[in-house]
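Minutes, project check-in
Item: structure for the 123-residue chain
Input as provided by the requester:
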Amino acid sequence: MKQLLLVFIGGGSGSVLRYLLGKWFNNIETGIPYGTFLANISGSFLIGIILGLAAKNQSLSPHSTLLLATGFCGGFTTFSTFVYENHVFLKAGDYLHFFIYLSLSIIIGFIAVFSAMYLVKQI
């Protein structure tokens, strides 16, 4: 039961922050979802730090990892929203923004995770 509560609290907190980023940064005029992009990239970097710390000398407890990685990052990053926003680009025939958003999200997301894990190992 404790694990479910940790995921619930972390997920709720991450979801609220993701919602706020969308409200603040998504561009209504162009439809470009900068807030979602920011959530996905920063969430990728953050999960890299969390999992890097968890792997490095067990710096984080399993409960902390569950709260932060599974809960917070799971609620904060937005794969389902990301897929829907790409669908909107395709439906509108906006192939340029589709390609840029899809490519940069995946490439920079991977770079963020691996960079964060590398940085944690160096500390």
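Outcome recorded: The helical segments are 2-25, 34-55, 62-76, 79-91, 95-122.
No further action items on this chain.
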